[in-house]
Amino acid sequence: MDDSIPFAGREYFIFVAVLAFSRGMDFLSTWVAAPHLVLEGNPIAKWLGWKWGAVVNFILVGTLALWPLSAIIVSTASVLVAARNFQSAWLMRSMGEEAYRDWYVQRMTGTPITLYLVCLAGNTLLVAAVADCFLLSFRGVARANKFAWNSLSCEVHGTLERPEGKTRFTKILVKAQLRAPAGTDEAKAVQLMQRAEHVCLISNSLVAERHIEATVVIE
Fold first, then answer.
1. What is the model's pLDDT at position 1?
2. What is the third-level CATH fold of 113-218?
């Protein structure tokens, strides 16, 4: 459950500032890339237009700031969308919105569906393989150290980019949560998770920045 914070307090204004910045970047990136909203993928935003879209977002910023978790989720998503928009904005603006849309559709229709699905599945399976490798590596590391634990869950996020014109994963982030019995040495638990990520064969085979966010829950 997302706990709320007092209205007009210090924390409230902090989240207002974070939301205003992230939503502002989303707005700015959309305007730079598609000022006429021809390429806008959100039908509600497209229907509202710039004027009413700004009004709705103003209300959302003031409302969501009351719930920190919701504010963080929306802010993160907004910044990621803005970054993606800015990445292709130069091409959209130079070609024009209609021309870019037609070009993109042509590229999609000219690509064999099997090739597209294979590439999409390959990206997904590779990230899933990193998660499986981490879980198996931790089991081995924990067994070797006679470390007792209840359960381990993890999420793996891969960043796909085109440095030097070559598409590849540039960052791999492992978010792991370990549940352990009372009396567990939390520092040792984190250390073992870090070691498991370090010895993962699949992660070691990738040319990408690797990070792990390890948390421990004592039950």
1. 39
2. GMP Synthetase; Chain A, domain 3 (3.30.300)
